[in-house]
Amino acid sequence: MTILGGLMLGMFLAALDQTIVATAIRTIGDDLNGLSLQAWVTTAYLITSTIATPLYGKLSDVYGRKPFYLLAIALFVTGSLLCGTAGSMYQLAMYRGLQGLGAGGLMALAITILGDLVPPRERARYQGFFLAVFGTSSVLGPVIGGFFAGADSILGITGWRWVFLVNVPLGILGIVVISRVLHLPPMKKVQHRIDWPGALMLVVALVPLLLIAEQGREWGWTSGRALLCYGVGVAGIGLFVLAERVAGNDALLPLYLFRNRVFSFGAGANVVIGLGMFGGLATLPLYLQIAKGMSPTEAGLTLIPFTIGIMAGSIVAGQLTARTGRYKIFPVAGTVLMAAGGLLLSRLSADTTLLAISAYSIVFGLGLGLTMQPLVLAVQNAVPVRDMGVATSASLFFRQMGGTLGTAVFLSVLFSTVGANIVAAFRAAVPTPEFQAALADPTVLADPANAPVLDMLGKGSGGALPSLDDSSFIGALDPRLARPFLEGFSESVDLIVMIVAGVMVLGLVLVLLIPEVPLRNVSGIQGRLEEEAEAAAGATPGVASEAETAEAASLPAPDRNAPGAPGAPGAPSSGLPAERGEPSPAHGPRTTDT
Fold it and tell me: CA 134, CA 372: separation in Å to the nearest integer?
């Protein structure tokens, strides 16, 4: 439990950082005189953390988990400390990039280390704690970020700088705990070569694609810069696949893993789940802040039911998986609930009560909680033990890519439709007696806060909408004049969550295609030790052939409840895996050298 606490602390740092910075970024940009550069602060972190995730997975499979987990925390703490001293937005973007290099390993390695320590069947119980940390951070982030951003100074230091400095003591505590209590057996010395060409091509592929995902709305999705990013990204993907084929078993992301149906369909499902999850997380806070007039802190607190749904779903899935050994039903039910939650949230309007918002959020969060950890567990269980690090990091990598795509696409759809929806709402509202009374009210006409709308209406149908880049003026408008803005924005949010519901249907199809492989009853460490014992007995576990890995998801597992079966009550046990050529009940299908 002490080790688990250290792992969750690292994951908490990574998850909290994403929401706490998003809340304070406007204050930071104003203080550093670079509000227009705020997107680069986000982009730098996103690029480095996304690229680093598969690197940590592969390197930890070869050289061990603990040193790289400590390195990830150290990089994150160092980046946080430097961010707290930044004097310009350019410096902050550079330091956020360093922070992202550490963040890329915090979540992936924490889940992988748990896989080393705990068998898959019991692992489901503990992974629920990790999701609880993720959900808690999504609520605490806006609250803490709003508090620090709103403080002029704390202990003589500008308030927003504590958004980053708060990570330093927590990170140091995590380093102390992990270094003192996490003792993993050394990895077997095997000759490996680092896949530098694959890593380079991954950078070439992802940097332009992530860049256009973040900057596309500003540049224009069909601008020259956008087309250049598309071309370089597609070429980079092709070169990455070629580099991985050449690298073979030493590849950063071994291609033979995609012959495993659990891994390949799991990758697709993770992309879709990430797309829907981040699409919802990106639009709901905006709805609460603009359509309901809440502050970032209030919006974070309003999403507590969403977090409760995530925690409840993850706990239920973990406990029932540990008791029954069955897990596929949970992502199936989870995607159905996410689709249902999306349909419910598509009914949001400017008048929707907080009780209804909370109920809809619980449904969506419950589906997310039932889906996230069983998908990772399925992939970890289906691949050979030696590939668990790269498989885990790949799952999180695909989810992050889906989230990046979802955020870019959904926000683009949101802001490309909101103008027309607001104009339509104004056309419907202007003839009403209530709106005409507002236009005739001397108090309304004399208030300078209403000038943006009055100027627009004074120019007739040719009047342009006020810029929505800064929506703060809406809160100062007379409620009767602000009503069309709230209705138009609500309609755009409804469209987004309706698309999310449709995307979840695709997710359901992908989840249904994932075969349910019986869960292993040994941890990653035990499985690796058994492979080494097998090798010492004369077998050559080595590296799995592509054919064997492809069949890993479909081989039947022995019935542990059958009388005399290995692992059954009262059955004799040799302490060794199954005989050569038979599936091993300890760690899935046998693997041999190519």
Answer: 11
